[in-house]
Design brief:
The protein has helices spanning about 15-30, 55-65, 85-95, 105-115, 130-145, 160-170, 190-200, 210-215, 235-240, 245-250, 275, 285-300, and strands at about 45-50, 70-75, 100-105, 120-125, 150-155, 175-180, 200-205, 220, 260. The protein is α/β, with parallel strands linked by helices and about 300 residues long. The chain folds into two domains: about 15-130 and about 290-305, Rossmann fold; about 130-285, 3-Layer(aba) Sandwich (Rossmann fold). The structure holds phosphoric acid mono(formamide)ester (CP) and norvaline. Phosphoric acid mono(formamide)ester binds near residues 53, 54, 55 and 263.
Amino acid sequence: MKKDLLNVSGLNAADLISILDHAGRIKAWHKEGREYTPLKGKTLGMIFYKSSTRTRLSFEVGMYQLGGLAIFLSNRDIQLGRGETEEDTAKIMSRYLDGIMVRTFSQESVEAFARTAAIPVINGLTDLLHPCQILSDLFTIKEKKGGCEGVRIAYIGDGNNIANSWIDAALRVPIHLRLACPQGYDPDRGFLARGEKEAAAKVELFRDPSEAADGADVLYTDVWTSMGQEAEKDARAEAFRNFQINRRIVEQARKDAIVMHCLPAHRGEEITSEVIDGPRSVVLDQAENRLHVQKAVMDILMGGKEK
Ligand code: CP
Ligand code: NVA
């Protein structure tokens, strides 16, 4: 049966381990200059309704390195953007392609693709979730901290797709997730309720960023205004004023804490330049790891790797 990647909690423990382990192998082979082309002859279609630097690059370069082809499909150019349904598009794409990646607004839209397509569908970010990012971040944390179990992650900022995805991941991975969001900008209520009740370890929500940062192994943030929310930019700038990773917040965390950001960053807003360019920051490795993890995901879902 085909497998999709719509969220992290949809993966079972074996899938998760297999993606992270395989990404480690793929990264090592890449660094050795060893060719690994299991997706020769395969094609991925990538539908983008929103801008992207890392996601597009990691899928497109990753597919090329795996021996396959990735096709960039902007909503401005394909018929989906002119009213062809997700279902019809998914059926047609299934006749040409071996996998589909979708970056769009509604999670329901990606799920409609997954229900209809005969080929694997990968969520490349919705307003609700960004599972590829969080899988890759788990890989980075494993690399930097030796594992994810019991790692204390302070997420400071908007209760957006990244925050929701961290909660979703916490259902499967025993991380200790401490979120700090201003009132009115909490993560998705359903995810939060599940996280607080069913987390593999612990999910907690704070209003004070320094409380969340206290003793953290990982400090994590994301933009105050996500794609699609541009009209709210000024109100958000006001609401998030104190939700910034800066020197003071870094001092609250453990001495060996790392600083992460999914990027793009808005310097001087959710994070200072001093911190993002400082010695604790791992954001460049974090961004690079998107490539290795994306390759593992495509290899596993699109049939290159024996399961
Ligand atoms: N982190 C991330 O998904 O970046 P892009 O929006 O550039 O793809
Ligand atoms: N929360 C951000 C993440 C970008 C990768 C957004 O949705 O714009």
